[in-house]
Every structure is written in structure tokens, then in C-alpha cells.
Amino acid sequence: MDRRSFLNRFGMGLGTLALAELMHPRSAVATSAALPGALDAMHVAPKAKRVIYLFQSGGPSQMDLFDHKPRLNQEHGQELPESVRRGQRLTGMSTNQASFPLVGSPFDFHQHGASGATLSDLLPHTASVVDDLCFVKSLHTEAINHGPAVTMMQSGSQFPGRPTMGSWLSYGLGSANANLPSFVVLTTQDWRGQPLTSRYWGSGFLPAKHDGVRFASSKDAVLYLNSPKGINREGRGMVIEHINQLHRHRLERTADPYLETQIAQYEMAFRMQASVPEVTDMRGETKATLALYGDDVQTPGTFAYNCLLARRLAARDVRFIQLYHGGWDGHAGLAWGIRQRCKETDQPAAALIKDLKARGLLDDTLVIWGGEFGRTNYCQGKLTPKSFGRDHHPRCFTAWMAGGGIKPGHTHGETDEYSYNIVRDGVHVHDFHATIQHLLGIDHEQLTYKYQGRHFRLTDVHGHLVKGILA
Length: 471
Description:
By secondary structure, this protein is of the alpha/beta class. It has a single domain, classed as Alkaline Phosphatase, subunit A. The protein contains 12 helices and 17 strands. Strands 1, 4, 5, 6, 7, 8, 11, 12 and 15 form a 9-stranded mixed β-sheet that branches. Strand 2 and strand 3 form a beta hairpin. It is globular. 46% of the residues are buried. About 5% of the residues have low confidence.
């Protein structure tokens, strides 16, 4: 019997098995066990199983939050020394300024915890978990405007079209839960600031099944997932299986990878009809847990709600969970704007660390907090006694990391007295990405994908492991 005859004869039996797998996802036929990725084995022993990335879009001001510089206050209003600026590139928004007056932070700073980390008083809740955090104060990038900089932080390139970090992990490691996407995106509902585009969680030239799946804050967390009225689950399952039988028949003839993606997406969507409502149902959370995240946790689409949902997704072994929160772009009225952003994010971010730690999940969950670049130490526009703004600054900015093999209670890197240049242990975006992949068991030079005749990777042709932040 040739292969075509075999498939024709036994195709209905295979379809029945596939339908049973879809209809009974917790049965012996199909469990929530991992779906393999492209890597046959880990390159190094992993410290983390999953990532929660709390991305603060707009460029949080490092010297108003983490990188305390008393000299800026001492020289407030004086001209930025040329010996500090060194003729470095400026954005088009301040390049025509005749003067670059230094601006000291209007906020008080204090040391916290056994580690003695210095934080702005805008972050009292983050201060309570500093001994679990590793502050990286020497991040830097070439990108100086928002779109290219966010794209760079997510994909390792300023140019759109490359796979993003979550897609690379989905491709390389696969899914640890067959009933949920390996890459989930959560966005604050009342988005502020720069546009939020789907390329920030796109799979680029990798198969489309590695795209990030964006969860909405409505009753239907994933658009178009639920069946139309009058269609029950059994009927939907049979339709999907018949469609996939046609796809498999065509696949035997063409070996088209697009059809493989279509089959995987149909099956995942069907499983998600049951798994997504369960993971987004917060009714089982205790009053103590809800209070930990703050009052906003009761409102879908807030940063607090998304942080709690991220913990629930992490507990179900979703590989990469990306949160986006905007409004950090402080070209004017920075003091007021950064207060508001900290009110929205400080308590939920700290609560996430405490919640993960209490449940034994922090050890193998890597949590990241940061934006696409920092802010200038000089005022953009006119400096007044009551108002100031800061322009984009890619030369140095701060992020923090926790859990998943990161050295707790540690500060890595140092900037000069003006928070303008790095003086010790610089960390390029590619180094940052290489280290994240290392913590998940991946050698960043070995996870590649051949496209248009070239082997691509997240770190392009650069990147070094930052050993100083590893536990």
C-alpha cells in the first residue's frame, strides 16, 4: 500500500483522534503538556522558565526614579558642560536650542533595604522589594526616537520586520502549555503617548504561529475567538477538524509551511475557547491578593489588572508575557506626568514580585521593568520655576530585573555625575537580550533562523553575556 492509499484509508481514524484531542484537552490524548520548539536541547542549564516584561513605553526618566545625581541639583539651571555632552547626537526636538540648562530632580531620594539601593520617593512600593531586584543603570542603544527604539528593544533591530523576543522564545523553546499561547501581550486600556503597533509583538519572518496574542480588556479577551450564536462547541470542533483534514491533505501534496501554521492556529484557537475564559476569571482571587495590587486591579485593562493577569498566566506556564504601559514621554510637564505614571505602576509592579515570590514562582520567572531609552539631564525648551521637560536620551538608562537567575539586591553599571554617559559596565540592548536568552537556557549565537540566505538571530551579529547580573 502506498502512502496516499494509507492516508485515504485511515484518514478518518486520524481525524477522530485529532477531534478527540480538541474536544477533551485534559484527557490522556491531549494534556496541557509542552509543545516542542526548534531546539532539541538547552544550550545551558536554564534558570528561568518564563518571562514577564513590564514595558514602560515613552522613556522613563532615570535620574528622577533610580539614578540619583545630586550634582544636577547643585548646578540646576547652569549650562550642560561640553566636556559632558561631547558633541553627541540630539533629537530634532532640541537640536536648535541655544541653551541646554541642567535640571535637578525635584524628588527626594533615599536608600532602602539591606542592599542600600537609592530610589526616588515616587516609588515607595518598589522600595519595599529592592532586595529582590537587580538594577541595570548602564543600558544604552543607538535608537533616539520612539518607534525605532521600542522596535530595537523588542526585536534587536531598529527596522520593522524582525521577530520579537517573545516570538524567538516561542520558536526556540515551544510552548509549556498546549492550551494557551506561548506569547501573550497585555496593554493598558487607556493608552497614552506614542502609538502602539502590532509589530512590537510580531513574529517577523518566523512562522506566524509565533506571533504574540494580544488579550483585550473586554469580556472577549481574544477577538473573534468565541463561536457565533447557534454554534455549540461540538459543532465548532467538527468544523475545525474537517478544515484541518483538508489542510493535511493539501500538505501531503505541497509541504507548505503556511498550512502547518493554519492547522496549529485553528487547533490553538479551539483550545483557547476554554482556557482563556478560565485564566481571565479573577473571581477566585482572595481579597488579600486583590488588595496587594491596589484599587485599580478591579478594573480590566489597568496596569494593576494586567499585572495580576500576568501572574495567572505565568502560573499556567505561558512562556513570554509582555505588558505595555504608556505615558512616560516627558518632553514637558515631566514632574506631574511622572507622578501619575508612578501612581499607576509602582504598587502593581511591586505586588507582582511579592505575589510571585509567595507562590514559589519568582525563582523561575524572570521579571523585567524598563523602557526604550532614558531622558536628558538638560531641559527641553524653556526651564521655568514650576515646569520642565526632558528630551530622549539613548546614551544611558535604567531597567530592573528580578527572579529567574538574576542577582538580587544588586546594582550593575554606573553613569557619570550628570547621568549623561556610562563610566562603568555598559550594557547594550544586544547584551541585554543575550543575557535574557541565557537565563532561559539559550546560547544567543545558536538560536538562528535562515531567511533570504542569511542566518538571523535576536542579537544580530553582536551581544555578550552580562555575567555581573547573574546569581
